[in-house]
Amino acid sequence: MPRPLPVRALITGATAGIGRATAELLASKGVAVGILAERPAEVDETVAAIRHAGGTAVPVYADLTRREDLTGLIDRLEADGFTIDALVNNAGIGLQADILDTREEDLRRLFEVNYFAAFLLSRDALRHMARRGHGHIVNISSASARRSLPGMSVYASTKAAMHSFSQALRIEAGTSGVYVTELLPMSVRTRFFDSATNRAKKPYAPGWKAHTPEEIAAEVLRALRYPVREVYSSTLARFVLGIADLFPTIADAILLSRRKKQE
Ligand SMILES: NC(=O)c1ccc[n+]([C@@H]2O[C@H](COP(=O)([O-])OP(=O)(O)OC[C@H]3O[C@@H](n4cnc5c(N)ncnc54)[C@H](OP(=O)(O)O)[C@@H]3O)[C@@H](O)[C@H]2O)c1
């Protein structure tokens, strides 16, 4: 039996890529969506597009690196009547840089957006969800949470932190009837790689096997209807990660030899 969809969902990073596709899909199914992002013009454009298509959307202006934007945000939304049945922690930024080329501000900015914001919003939303005895938190992490790659140490670390956090949150929230799902996509065709700071000699770019944001949005919708703990974007991704877990020394050797060939 599918679970009823949430009445209201707050989606971070909902103006582009996976977040936007998720907001549009959920709104088309009758979910009122909170569109959270940093750039007000993009928030307004997304809200207008969803309303034009017949959906319900409210703007939520927040730069997730700013403490003053985050503090009390969930409480204010709830007090204004936007009770949050589902929170989709999707906002994320990338960085392609070797460790020797990584600056401290890169490290801090990625953790602020990809991890601290998701943690704090989840904590604040969970207080309200737990009181009501239902809710769903969906964390958009990454396959790199399970296997870091050269040039992606900071990004993968933020996602590994989100992976660990999701595991604990799932149990702590589960006692109050709140579900937690982590999505671990591998490669998705969005502007993510274009906007990421890039100091890599051989930058990674999504290949022909990359998913569309709409495919990932469909996984979010499915998870809300049929709650599961983790969703991998493909069987191949799950297989490759499983093999790398089973044979880490071989995985390291393959990556090292590829890296030597590139240098
Ligand atoms: N694309 C992939 O291949 C891939 C693979 C695995 C996992 N993921 C994860 O999926 C999620 C979405 O990625 P995407 O590819 O859809 O990215 P995207 O197209 O670049 O969109 C990122 C969204 O996050 C928002 N955002 C960025 N910094 C923000 C900040 N400081 N405050 C508030 N909002 C902020 C952006 O809004 P503004 O423009 O207003 O900043 C935008 O709406 C990320 O967590 C990413 O790590 C992506």
Describe the 3D structure.
The structure is a single chain. The mean pLDDT is about 95. α6 (about 155-175) links the parallel β6 (about 135-140) and β7. The protein has one domain (about 10-260): 3-Layer(aba) Sandwich (Rossmann fold), CATH 3.40.50. The chain contains ten helices and nine strands. With about 260 residues, it is an alpha/beta fold. The strands form two sheets. It has a seven-stranded parallel beta sheet, sandwiched between helices. Strands 5-8 form a two-stranded parallel ribbon. It has helices at about 15-30, 40-50, 65-70, 75-80, 105-130, 155-175, 190-195, 215-225, 235-245, 250-260; strands at about 10, 30-35, 55-60, 85-90, 95, 135-140, 180-185, 195-200, 230. The structure holds NADP nicotinamide-adenine-dinucleotide phosphate.
According to CATH, what is the topology?
Rossmann fold
Rg, alpha carbons: 18 Å
| Overall geometric form | globular
Q: Which residues sit in consecutive blocks of at least 5 with pLDDT less than 50?
A: none
- Number of contiguous helices: 10
Q: Whole-Å distance between the termini?
A: 54 Å
Helix fraction?
Answer: 40-55%
Strand order of the largest sheet: 3-2-1-4-6-7-9
Biggest β-sheet description: 7 strands, parallel
CATH superfamily: NAD(P)-binding Rossmann-like Domain
Secondary structure: number of strands:
9
DSSP strand content: 15-25%
Task: Please write the string of helix (H) and strand (E) elements.
Answer: EHEHEHHEEHEHEHEHEHH
CATH class: Alpha Beta
